[in-house]
Write a structure and sequence with these properties.
7% of the residues lie in helices and 35% in strands. By secondary structure, it is mainly beta. The strands form four sheets. A four-stranded antiparallel beta sheet has the order 7-8-9-10, with no helix packed on it. Strands 3-12-11 form a three-stranded antiparallel beta sheet, with no helix packed on it. The structure holds FE2/S2 (inorganic) cluster (FES).
Length: 187
């Protein structure tokens, strides 16, 4: 296949990771994509690109090490409860800030929605949400919220963060929130 042909086939279906995961407003857009280009299964189809809201959730100066700040994202309501945590110098997957130690997660347990807001613990190098008050699950905030123990079998959804000046913004979400069939009503 020539470089020109390859380029042509991919034109019109390039969606950057940022545009796919994040958006400046809670909107859904329909675009055309070409699946399996250059194969017998090639088919043009429609894909919906979902944009998460960009929401200011705190300033850097408000954050204290190991003192979570509660917020709602991407919408309001108890199943959208989240916590923003400064892990006190412990680097985390998806962390922002100079030490990559600022993260945010849903605080609704992925098992049956147990409230995790008040369960944060920092012990040595460990940074954990849990034990869940319902069935004792715990989640590792250094490793994208993976399950450490308990009844849950799905990681906690992680909130994608950005810093602009001194402000911290929630701009997207990785993972499906408990109690949702989609994270955004409009999606
Ligand atoms: S609801 Fe959290 S472990 Fe069951």
């Amino acid at each position: 296949m020539t470089a020109n042909r390859q380029k042509k086939e991919t034109e019109g279906c390039v969606v950057s990771r940022r545009n796919f995961l994040i958006g400046s407003a809670a909107t859904a857009t329909t675009i055309s994509v070409n699946l399996f280009p250059g194969t017998a299964q090639a088919v043009a189809t429609k894909a919906r690109v979902v944009g998460y809201p960009r929401k200011k959730i705190a300033t850097l100066s408000e954050l204290e090490p190991n003192k979570p700040i509660a917020f709602s994202y991407p919408e309001e309501g108890s199943l959208n409860n989240c916590v923003l945590v400064h892990l006190g110098g412990v680097q985390a997957g998806g962390g922002i800030g100079l030490k990559r130690d600022i993260v945010a997660f849903s605080s609704a347990c992925t098992h049956q929605g147990g409230p995790l807001e008040s369960t944060y613990k920092a012990v040595g190098e460990h940074r954990v949400l849990g034990q869940c008050p319902f069935h004792l699950s715990t989640f590792d905030l250094r490793r994208h919220g993976i399950v450490i123990s308990g009844q849950a079998y799905q990681s906690l959804p992680q909130v994608l963060l950005e810093v602009e000046g001194h402000d911290i913004y929630a701009v997207g979400m990785m993972g499906l929130l408990f109690g949702h069939d989609r994270n955004l009503k409009e999606a």
